[in-house]
Design brief:
47 strands; 1 helix; 522 residues; mainly beta; single chain; eight-stranded parallel beta barrel
């Protein structure tokens, strides 16, 4: 009910401000972010059921009563729970050909305690609602202890026609991950971890490798992802390492919003786009896959809004956008690095706002930062790169009457800014820059160091709260490393040559140069 009321409030606000969207207005986040019910300490589990898988092919289930219907066929374990208590299921042992499937109308916990499950014919773990209403799942707490492994097979051949089974680890209800252990998921047939509600990562170390590729077969379309939450995906702690190698695959995908408030996320997507129109599109947004058989390979893709407040997020994507929100995108804290070899590094379907944190958007094939609405840079540190002329480092949808507003923060942009930008904070440009070179940028009493890419558009643009001083070919002695080693905050630099700067108002004219010099502490 809270989510519904907040959503209705958002819709009313959006309608009220619709005529002012081209002005400097930022709507509040409409989603209730209270996560108290996701804290496992607030749930009392009154019963524990043990499931011990065995390498000899005979699983054992203990701790059940008349409220449970248990079916064990080798290491294939199915439990139907009809009681009213909150149950903790503890999985252990090894199943080279097995699964754990649970039907329940209550919220529950699943402790993965050094378990390894491989199912050649479907999901390793499958959490449904009841048998009569399997798609009405409840909250499931996933507690990680020790080292755990889950894997599916190439073909899902045992899925009942009335049920979904979309991943090596699939649930109809919410998945909330915590604990101090680790989980490795390998997906060959479909996705890695999927909830048809939401996914929340609180703690634990999770690695997901997905090798499956997108397919379209009538109305049955497979869009594989390492992690997918139908409602939203939320990161408040822990560590995610996600790799997708198949055609049309994604790192994290959601029909709703994304919240990155803590923890670390590392995403690598190396697959090509799928279908006749699955490639990136030029211009604003690079939607490029409007065909029914076009599925793009992206790092983070959210149909709603994306909010970064405290996570460290690193995305490397080969064929399409690194990070995309179909709604708005905002960064107020944390560190966000996105590198795309072929399309926009970071793209928003609406307004894009940076008010704090560290942001690097590095594109070798399109814009660095690309907003289909207004782009607001109000604070933080931004390093934007476009290595594809005539694209720019920071783009706003000027064709639609929007623009870039720069009012604060520290900015380095290789490839220039959108023409017609509103630059309340003064910008300066160097007429040329050298490739693979360390530069020192001093703004007031703070010095930053950044390494230029091996190619890129022109000019090099800098901006800060006071008139910046730029040096090329410096040696970096110390500092806090970020952006995959391309940037240092609080840097100590020496040597180098002074770079002449001139006032800059927008556009990507100017000349660049090769050359090199200087080094940083790799």
């Amino acid at each position: 009910m809270k989510h519904l009321l907040n959503y209705l409030l958002f819709v009313l606000l959006a309608m009220s401000f619709a005529s002012c969207q081209k002005d400097n207005i930022v709507l509040i986040d409409p989603i209730d972010t209270d996560d108290s019910e996701d804290l496992i300490a607030n749930t009392v589990f009154t019963q524990t059921v043990g499931v011990a898988f065995s390498s000899d092919g005979n699983a054992a289930v203990t701790g059940t009563n008349d409220d449970f219907t248990v079916t064990v066929n080798g290491n294939d374990v199915t439990i139907i729970y009809a009681g009213e208590e909150y149950v903790m299921y503890e999985l252990s042992g090894t199943a080279n050909d097995g699964f754990f499937k649970l039907y329940s109308a209550k919220k529950q916990g699943i402790t993965l305690n050094g378990v390894s499950i491989t199912n050649p014919n479907g999901a390793a773990i499958n959490v449904q609602g009841t048998q009569s209403e399997p798609n009405k799942g409840k909250r499931t707490f996933i507690i990680l202890k020790g080292e755990n492994t889950l894997a599916d097979g190439a073909n899902y051949i045992d899925t009942p026609a009335t049920e979904d089974e979309k991943a090596a680890m699939f649930g109809e209800g919410q998945f909330i991950f915590s604990g101090e252990g680790s989980l490795n998921v390998a997906a060959m047939g479909k996705s890695g971890i999927v909830s048809d509600d939401y996914v929340h990562f609180i703690s634990g170390t999770i690695t997901v490798n997905v090798s499956s590729s997108a397919t379209v077969n009538g109305s049955d379309t497979l869009k594989p992802a390492c992690v997918k939450g139908k409602d939203y995906v939320r990161m408040t702690g822990g560590a995610l390492s996600l790799t997708s190698t198949g055609t049309g695959g994604k790192g994290i995908s959601s029909d709703g919003n994304g919240y990155f408030y803590g923890g670390t996320v590392n995403v690598t997507v190396t697959g090509n786009n799928f279908g006749s129109n699955g490639g990136g599109g030029g211009g604003h947004g690079g939607w490029g896959n409007n065909s029914s058989d076009g599925i793009s390979a992206k790092g983070l893709k959210f149909d709603g809004n994306l909010i970064f407040k405290g996570s460290k997020v690193v995305v490397n994507c080969t064929a399409h956008e690194g990070i995309e929100a179909k709604g708005t995108l905002s960064v107020s804290g944390g560190e966000v690095y996105s590198h795309s070899q072929s399309d926009d590094a970071i793209n928003s379907g609406g307004n894009l706002t940076i008010s704090g944190g560290l942001v690097c958007a590095y594109s070798q094939g399109n814009d660095g930062l690309d907003a289909n609405g207004n782009c607001y840079i109000k604070g933080g540190v931004v390093y934007a790169i476009s290595a594809s002329s005539p694209e720019v480092a920071i783009d706003a949808n000027s064709e639609g009457g929007y623009k870039l507003y720069l009012t604060g923060g520290t900015l380095v942009a290789i490839g220039g800014l959108e023409s017609g930008s509103s630059l309340t904070q003064s910008c300066y440009s160097a007429s040329s820059w050298s490739q693979n070179t360390w530069y020192g940028l001093t703004v007031g009493s703070t010095t930053y160091a950044f390494k230029t890419p091996s190619s890129g558009g022109t000019p090099l643009v800098v901006s800060g709260g006071s008139t910046p001083v730029l040096q090329s070919g410096v040696n970096v002695g110390s500092g806090t490393e970020c952006f995959e080693g391309m940037f240092y905050t609080n840097a100590a630099v020496s040597g180098g040559n002074s770079v002449s700067l001139s006032s800059y108002s927008g556009g990507n004219g100017g000349g660049g140069g090769p050359g090199g010099g200087g080094h940083g502490p790799f």
